[in-house]
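WARN retry 2 of 3 for item q-0093 after timeout on previous attempt; input resubmitted unchanged.
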Amino acid sequence: MSDPFVRLAGLKRSFSQGGETIEVLRGIDLVIRPGEIVALLGPSGSGKSTMLQAVGLLEGGFTGQIAIAGIEASALSADARTTLRRDHLGFVYQFHHLLPDFNATENVVLPQLVAGKPAAEAKARAEELLTALGLAHRLTHRPSQLSGGEQQRVAVARALANRPGLVLADEPTGNLDEATADKVLEEFLKLVRGEGSSALVATHNERLALRMDRVVRLHEGLLA
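OK item q-0093 returned
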């Protein structure tokens, strides 16, 4: 069996509010293996986004162990964490967060340029991903010219542009109608599997969660 791409051990996160301590994560243990797509199921407010922020190395305040691609992240400097995040992780959010002044291709090219990829190679990669997502006819359209489903497809392409080992998706279809959500999720899963990436997908939709390889449920700060 392959080594885990993600390993969480004893992950905790608490917040102070009104003089009280609120424990959002109370000791999370989780292993995600290369190529595995895991649904993180739980109602709104259960801590799914907080857990994804931890795995994505997006903020501090957590205790416990977070290992990505065999690298223990808690001991790293801020710069080293940024490099680990850039080299190994991709992100898809409920709202696409595309750059409005850039067209679809440019939105997918940009993170590749930041990672040091040559412009021609980055453009070819962007067009490959967007075409795979059914957007070959929309390559030069800006976000305002795209439907909600098309915008989210561009966001999926952007997340996969640098060939991450792990894609973190936070309610990636939560802002779409049911039919569009089904189609975008189908394309997302097909593309992630085709790329050989792992994924951790936060959702409150059990029907969508059951289409993934494994479902873990976040309840009262623990996984079940």
